[in-house]
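Continuing the series of single-chain predictions for the mutant panel. This is the parent chain; the variants come on the following pages.
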Amino acid sequence: MHEPKRTPDLIAQTLVGEIRAGTIELDEALPTERELCERFAASRPTVREALAQMQLRGYVTAAAGRRPRASRPSIANILKGAGEQIRDLLGDAESGAHLEQMRLFIETGAVREAATRAANLQLTKLQGALERNFEAIGTSAFAPTDIAFHRVLVSISGNPVILTLHDMFVSSMIAHRPPTDDPERYDRIAYDEHRLIYEAVRDNDVTAATDVMERHLARSYRARLGAPRLSTTSTQTHEL
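Parent structure:
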Protein backbone atom coordinates (compact mmCIF):
# COMPACT_ATOMS: atom_id res chain seq x y z
CA MET A 1 0.00 0.00 0.00
CA HIS A 2 1.36 3.38 -1.05
CA GLU A 3 1.66 6.07 1.57
CA PRO A 4 -0.23 9.30 0.81
CA LYS A 5 1.91 12.10 -0.55
CA ARG A 6 2.97 14.80 1.85
CA THR A 7 1.68 18.32 1.31
CA PRO A 8 5.08 19.73 0.20
CA ASP A 9 5.31 16.94 -2.39
CA LEU A 10 1.83 17.73 -3.71
CA ILE A 11 2.57 21.45 -3.94
CA ALA A 12 5.83 20.80 -5.76
CA GLN A 13 4.17 18.32 -8.11
CA THR A 14 1.42 20.79 -8.98
CA LEU A 15 3.79 23.68 -9.66
CA VAL A 16 6.19 21.51 -11.66
CA GLY A 17 3.23 20.36 -13.77
CA GLU A 18 2.31 23.98 -14.46
CA ILE A 19 5.88 24.80 -15.50
CA ARG A 20 5.99 21.79 -17.83
CA ALA A 21 2.63 22.74 -19.33
CA GLY A 22 3.68 26.35 -19.85
CA THR A 23 1.08 27.73 -17.47
CA ILE A 24 4.01 29.19 -15.58
CA GLU A 25 6.49 30.36 -18.21
CA LEU A 26 10.23 29.85 -17.94
CA ASP A 27 11.97 32.60 -15.96
CA GLU A 28 8.59 33.85 -14.72
CA ALA A 29 8.47 34.71 -11.03
CA LEU A 30 6.47 32.22 -9.00
CA PRO A 31 3.60 33.48 -6.84
CA THR A 32 4.61 34.89 -3.48
CA GLU A 33 4.80 32.60 -0.45
CA ARG A 34 1.64 34.23 0.89
CA GLU A 35 -0.24 33.53 -2.34
CA LEU A 36 0.95 29.92 -2.38
CA CYS A 37 -0.05 29.48 1.26
CA GLU A 38 -3.55 30.71 0.48
CA ARG A 39 -3.87 28.65 -2.69
CA PHE A 40 -2.80 25.37 -1.08
CA ALA A 41 -4.07 26.10 2.44
CA ALA A 42 -0.57 25.43 3.72
CA SER A 43 1.87 27.03 6.14
CA ARG A 44 4.94 28.99 5.06
CA PRO A 45 7.35 26.21 6.17
CA THR A 46 5.41 23.74 4.02
CA VAL A 47 5.53 26.03 0.99
CA ARG A 48 9.23 26.66 1.52
CA GLU A 49 9.90 22.94 1.63
CA ALA A 50 8.05 22.51 -1.65
CA LEU A 51 10.07 25.30 -3.27
CA ALA A 52 13.29 23.77 -1.96
CA GLN A 53 12.32 20.46 -3.58
CA MET A 54 11.69 22.23 -6.87
CA GLN A 55 15.01 24.02 -6.70
CA LEU A 56 16.82 20.74 -6.03
CA ARG A 57 15.11 19.19 -9.06
CA GLY A 58 16.03 22.15 -11.25
CA TYR A 59 12.56 23.66 -11.70
CA VAL A 60 13.24 26.79 -9.67
CA THR A 61 16.11 29.25 -9.53
CA ALA A 62 16.54 31.46 -6.50
CA ALA A 63 18.70 34.48 -5.78
CA ALA A 64 18.99 36.86 -2.86
CA GLY A 65 16.49 39.68 -2.98
CA ARG A 66 14.23 38.20 -5.67
CA ARG A 67 11.36 35.77 -5.87
CA PRO A 68 12.00 32.22 -7.09
CA ARG A 69 11.65 31.91 -10.85
CA ALA A 70 10.53 29.02 -13.02
CA SER A 71 13.25 26.98 -14.69
CA ARG A 72 13.77 23.64 -16.41
CA PRO A 73 16.27 20.95 -15.41
CA SER A 74 19.44 20.71 -17.46
CA ILE A 75 22.39 18.34 -17.39
CA ALA A 76 24.63 21.14 -16.14
CA ASN A 77 22.29 22.11 -13.30
CA ILE A 78 21.78 18.54 -12.15
CA LEU A 79 25.51 17.85 -12.11
CA LYS A 80 26.25 21.12 -10.35
CA GLY A 81 23.77 20.24 -7.63
CA ALA A 82 25.53 16.94 -7.03
CA GLY A 83 28.89 18.61 -7.39
CA GLU A 84 28.38 20.84 -4.38
CA GLN A 85 28.30 17.73 -2.20
CA ILE A 86 31.14 15.98 -4.01
CA ARG A 87 33.41 19.01 -3.64
CA ASP A 88 33.20 18.61 0.12
CA LEU A 89 35.01 15.30 -0.27
CA LEU A 90 38.10 16.89 -1.80
CA GLY A 91 39.68 17.49 1.60
CA ASP A 92 39.78 13.75 2.24
CA ALA A 93 42.84 12.07 0.73
CA GLU A 94 41.05 8.91 -0.41
CA SER A 95 38.12 10.80 -1.93
CA GLY A 96 40.54 13.16 -3.64
CA ALA A 97 42.33 10.17 -5.15
CA HIS A 98 39.04 8.80 -6.50
CA LEU A 99 38.27 12.15 -8.12
CA GLU A 100 41.76 12.28 -9.61
CA GLN A 101 41.11 8.84 -11.09
CA MET A 102 37.82 10.07 -12.53
CA ARG A 103 39.67 12.97 -14.10
CA LEU A 104 42.22 10.57 -15.57
CA PHE A 105 39.42 8.58 -17.22
CA ILE A 106 37.80 11.76 -18.57
CA GLU A 107 40.96 13.31 -19.95
CA THR A 108 42.53 10.20 -21.46
CA GLY A 109 39.25 9.53 -23.22
CA ALA A 110 39.04 13.16 -24.32
CA VAL A 111 42.59 13.26 -25.69
CA ARG A 112 41.98 10.01 -27.57
CA GLU A 113 38.88 11.56 -29.12
CA ALA A 114 40.74 14.79 -29.91
CA ALA A 115 43.57 12.94 -31.66
CA THR A 116 40.98 11.15 -33.76
CA ARG A 117 38.64 13.98 -34.73
CA ALA A 118 40.04 17.43 -33.94
CA ALA A 119 39.24 19.91 -36.72
CA ASN A 120 41.55 22.72 -37.80
CA LEU A 121 39.63 25.35 -35.80
CA GLN A 122 39.83 23.22 -32.66
CA LEU A 123 43.56 22.67 -33.18
CA THR A 124 44.01 26.43 -33.52
CA LYS A 125 42.23 26.99 -30.20
CA LEU A 126 44.34 24.31 -28.54
CA GLN A 127 47.52 25.86 -29.92
CA GLY A 128 46.46 29.28 -28.60
CA ALA A 129 45.83 27.81 -25.14
CA LEU A 130 49.27 26.17 -25.26
CA GLU A 131 50.96 29.47 -26.17
CA ARG A 132 49.26 31.29 -23.30
CA ASN A 133 50.36 28.49 -20.98
CA PHE A 134 53.97 28.99 -22.09
CA GLU A 135 53.80 32.76 -21.57
CA ALA A 136 52.55 32.23 -17.99
CA ILE A 137 55.42 29.98 -16.83
CA GLY A 138 56.69 31.10 -13.44
CA THR A 139 53.75 33.43 -12.79
CA SER A 140 50.47 33.21 -10.88
CA ALA A 141 48.69 33.01 -14.24
CA PHE A 142 50.10 29.55 -14.96
CA ALA A 143 47.37 27.59 -13.14
CA PRO A 144 44.47 29.34 -14.96
CA THR A 145 46.16 28.80 -18.34
CA ASP A 146 46.77 25.18 -17.36
CA ILE A 147 43.07 24.73 -16.66
CA ALA A 148 42.22 26.48 -19.94
CA PHE A 149 44.46 24.15 -21.96
CA HIS A 150 42.83 21.05 -20.51
CA ARG A 151 39.36 22.55 -20.95
CA VAL A 152 39.90 23.24 -24.65
CA LEU A 153 41.11 19.67 -25.04
CA VAL A 154 38.07 18.20 -23.30
CA SER A 155 35.69 20.47 -25.25
CA ILE A 156 36.79 18.85 -28.52
CA SER A 157 34.71 15.81 -27.55
CA GLY A 158 31.57 17.90 -28.00
CA ASN A 159 30.04 16.17 -24.97
CA PRO A 160 28.42 18.67 -22.56
CA VAL A 161 28.24 16.12 -19.72
CA ILE A 162 31.97 15.45 -19.84
CA LEU A 163 32.79 19.16 -20.09
CA THR A 164 30.53 20.00 -17.15
CA LEU A 165 32.11 17.30 -14.99
CA HIS A 166 35.55 18.63 -15.91
CA ASP A 167 34.60 22.23 -15.13
CA MET A 168 33.08 21.25 -11.79
CA PHE A 169 36.12 19.61 -10.30
CA VAL A 170 39.36 20.88 -11.83
CA SER A 171 39.41 24.29 -10.12
CA SER A 172 38.52 22.75 -6.77
CA MET A 173 41.22 20.12 -7.14
CA ILE A 174 43.81 22.80 -7.78
CA ALA A 175 42.63 24.83 -4.80
CA HIS A 176 43.27 21.84 -2.53
CA ARG A 177 46.75 21.10 -3.85
CA PRO A 178 49.83 21.91 -1.81
CA PRO A 179 52.37 24.49 -3.03
CA THR A 180 55.65 23.37 -4.55
CA ASP A 181 59.21 24.20 -3.59
CA ASP A 182 60.12 25.33 -7.14
CA PRO A 183 57.01 26.53 -9.03
CA GLU A 184 58.81 27.57 -12.21
CA ARG A 185 60.49 24.18 -12.61
CA TYR A 186 57.17 22.38 -12.22
CA ASP A 187 55.54 24.83 -14.63
CA ARG A 188 58.13 24.02 -17.30
CA ILE A 189 57.65 20.29 -16.81
CA ALA A 190 53.89 20.70 -17.15
CA TYR A 191 54.21 22.92 -20.21
CA ASP A 192 56.54 20.45 -21.94
CA GLU A 193 53.96 17.71 -21.38
CA HIS A 194 51.19 19.97 -22.69
CA ARG A 195 53.29 20.61 -25.81
CA LEU A 196 53.74 16.87 -26.39
CA ILE A 197 49.99 16.36 -25.95
CA TYR A 198 49.24 19.09 -28.49
CA GLU A 199 51.73 17.67 -31.01
CA ALA A 200 50.27 14.17 -30.69
CA VAL A 201 46.73 15.50 -31.20
CA ARG A 202 47.87 17.57 -34.18
CA ASP A 203 49.53 14.51 -35.73
CA ASN A 204 46.51 12.26 -35.07
CA ASP A 205 48.73 10.00 -32.96
CA VAL A 206 46.18 8.44 -30.62
CA THR A 207 48.66 6.18 -28.83
CA ALA A 208 51.16 8.96 -28.10
CA ALA A 209 48.44 11.39 -27.02
CA THR A 210 46.98 8.88 -24.56
CA ASP A 211 50.36 7.82 -23.20
CA VAL A 212 51.53 11.40 -22.61
CA MET A 213 48.25 12.38 -20.92
CA GLU A 214 48.41 9.37 -18.60
CA ARG A 215 52.01 10.17 -17.64
CA HIS A 216 51.18 13.86 -17.24
CA LEU A 217 48.32 13.37 -14.79
CA ALA A 218 49.95 10.47 -12.93
CA ARG A 219 53.22 12.40 -12.46
CA SER A 220 51.32 15.48 -11.35
CA TYR A 221 49.35 13.53 -8.74
CA ARG A 222 52.42 11.72 -7.37
CA ALA A 223 54.35 14.99 -7.17
CA ARG A 224 51.55 16.56 -5.15
CA LEU A 225 51.42 13.63 -2.75
CA GLY A 226 55.07 14.22 -1.90
CA ALA A 227 55.02 18.00 -2.10
CA PRO A 228 56.13 19.85 1.05
CA ARG A 229 53.62 22.06 2.83
CA LEU A 230 55.12 25.50 2.35
CA SER A 231 53.97 28.95 3.29
CA THR A 232 51.43 30.29 0.79
CA THR A 233 53.05 33.71 1.01
CA SER A 234 56.21 32.51 -0.70
CA THR A 235 54.88 29.89 -3.10
CA GLN A 236 52.07 29.31 -5.56
CA THR A 237 49.71 26.40 -6.11
CA HIS A 238 50.03 24.88 -9.57
CA GLU A 239 48.29 22.13 -11.46
CA LEU A 240 51.57 20.67 -12.83
